[in-house]
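agent: user wants the full assembly modeled, not chains individually. Plan: 1) parse entity lines 2) check alphabet per entity 3) run joint structure prediction 4) return tokens. Steps 1-2 passed, two entities, 429 residues total. Proceeding.
--- entities ---
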Amino acid sequence: MDELSLIHSSQHGDLDAFNSLVLAYQGNLFNTALRILNDEELAADATQDAFLSAFRSINTYRGGSFKAWLIRTVINACYDELRRKKRRPTTPLEPDVDGDEMDTPHWMADPALTPEGQLEADELEHAIQHCLDNLPLEFRTVVVMADLQGLDYSEVAVATRSPLGTIKSRLARARLRLRECLQEFRELLPAAFRLQEEPMR
Amino acid sequence: MNFRDVELLSAYLDGRLSPSDSHQLESRLASDQNLQAVLDDLRTARGLLRNLPHRRVPRNFTLSPKMAGLKAPEPRVYPVFRFATVLATLLFIISFAVNGFAPLARPRLSAAQAPAVGLGGGCSNCGPSESVTATPEAPQAFSALAPTEGLPATQDNSGNLTAPAAPIAPKAAAPFAANNLPAPVSTKAPIPLNLQISLGFIVLICGVTAWLLRLRSEKEFQKRWNRK
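--- prediction returned ---
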């Protein structure tokens, strides 16, 4: 069954069809939420809320990129989580002394990487997440959508309900800030920086 | 280099510049090493983000019918039984109300009719509350009427006139109907007990059937989801 048929069936209340869409997009939504919230539990909650909200309001979907539409719901769910977190800040029972809450669980480790390689990859991920966390929320949202989820400018504009010019500007500012932030980690992760270079278009 | 240049570089990286703007920027990049370094850094930052490991989801986020607020579909005949239950219940309640209020309404009717009618009447079957009583002004009228009917009226200690019941009873309906007078009030309940029992039975049967139909539908719905 193609995506359009699944969406159409979902709009008629077919939960099976909607769950097929959930399985197809849950990775995208969870990773988007994770990069915005930097908390796996909160990201899972936001993802679940987003799918629930998407099912309830699927009749408001009027075509276009379904992925962008879903990402908008998860962004809204993330904003709700952040507001909730701000209202009721929580303190961990044990202080996070080494800041390893983002450590990749053992089952997620890439078996192709050596322990050193895995360590480098983890450090790189920490560094990037740290830089993302330092971005203002609206910049983080745009950069996550465009660079992590690969949405184009118009899809990001639709998802954030912002003009295209604003998206271009926010993305440029976000990348500029990331560049400045990542420069702090250049010495820590020189190999990774060198490896990520892409040929110019 | 200003922010406008950064915007241009960012859009250039994403291939969002027009061919003429791209050409112009490329010629600037060729001559400006600082601009080229910024472009490299932006590209690196973008590349790092794009290559961030994609985390596996900790669990599936599929929705259950309960989460989605879906209910088991109603069996086709369920609304019929539900409607029948509601209707029968209403009728059942109304029947009790009618039977309950009927005795309260009778004495008032009798009292109101007596002076207007000015006629003693009643029957042996009627209880004390149903005997027609006359006001003190009534005796003349009543006594005037009584001989013509051939029925001696009796007067009790309080002055109330009581018509002899037995001789009148068989003929009672005719003069009342002929003179457009209200018929004597009966002690029988307006809604028979048999009908009330039947209604109660219908309520019970329809209600239980509707509930069983719903229960079976919900169980089948649950079973279908558990199989998936």
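agent: reporting back. Chain A touches chain B through 54 residues (CB under 8 Å). The longest helix of chain A spans residues 15-37.
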